[in-house]
Amino acid sequence: xxxxxxxxxSPSILSADFSRLGEQIASVxxxxxxxxxxxxxxxxxxxxxxxxxxxxxxxxxxxxxVLEAHLMISDPDKYLDNFISAGADIVLVHPSTCKSVADxxxxxxxxxxxxxxxxxxxxxxxxxxxxxxxxxxxLIMSVYPGFGGQSFIPTATDGLVALLPTLQENxxxxxxxxxxxxxxxxxxxxxxxxxxxxxSAVFNNSAPPDENFLRLLNLISQ
Length: 222
Ligand code: DX5
Ligand code: ZN
What we know:
CATH topology: TIM Barrel
Strand order of the largest sheet: 1-8-7-6-5-4-3-2
Shape: globular
CATH superfamily: Aldolase class I
Structural class: alpha/beta
Radius of gyration: 16 Å
Bound molecules: D-xylitol-5-phosphate, zinc ion
Number of domains: 1
Largest sheet: 8 strands, parallel
């Protein structure tokens, strides 16, 4: 039986104009956005550096939206408490950064927030199978983590069809991140993916964030 759900766009603030971040977040919020994607990069696990818990705390004051923290950092266990007390509602980690994937997921869940694993394009989606019961969410990377504005890698979803029944039986939300835009999003509408992260396709100079958000949402809500 097909599982029904409302697809969501999760705007990544990585491409936002940080000099007017509050305004940009308010724009997508006004368009009905429910969840915001926060890309945390440490310059070590990925070559790029972004922000840490201080900005998550500031964003928490700006908006009631669900905040998902995508941690692209080495040894995330060290910082879990900081991100959670800053206001993250969902914490997503890359398995290869964890000393024990099960322990990290359990620690996140024990604090009462949602947990998830992130799989890179050169990793096999089936790697999450042993942890399904500890996961609320699976994030499929459709670019190599580190930068916004990269091209979508279609092979990232290889293996999703096989894993879909297990994910759905366990109520694991499926999300995709990287290269999602008006050209690529349509082909994923019937794939079982529920949440689509979009950075440069939402925050750009072509149109205001709310308009970009709604255009993307329309393409998957037919
Ligand atoms: C990349 C990040 C993405 C990024 C996506 O490492 O995880 O969330 O912001 O950017 P776009 O949507 O521009 O590919
Ligand atoms: Zn991300």
